[in-house]
Specification:
The protein is mainly α. The protein has one domain. It contains 4 helices and no strands. It is globular.
């Protein structure tokens, strides 16, 4: 399977967060910052992964669930 550099970086970033590995997290963020458009590409890849997870968890109303979560976050 071929993975884009941004997606690969996003996967390493998500794994670092899940493992509470600040050293790896810092390294992935620095790697993104060192690439032209890297931070934007990382953000897009993370958003795509989050949307895929949301869709897997709530296939019928995942967009509504995300909107609800966003509303709750803005109110707190």
């Amino acid at each position: 399977m071929t993975t884009s550099p941004a997606r690969s970086l996003a996967l390493r970033t998500m794994r670092a967060v899940a493992d509470d590995n600040r050293e790896t997290l810092t390294a992935t963020l620095r790697a993104a910052a060192g690439q032209p458009g890297g931070v934007m590409a990382l953000i897009v890849a993370l958003a795509e992964a989050a949307n895929a997870n949301a869709q897997a968890l709530a296939p019928d109303d995942w967009r509504e669930q995300l909107a609800f979560i966003e509303t709750v976050e803005e109110e707190s």
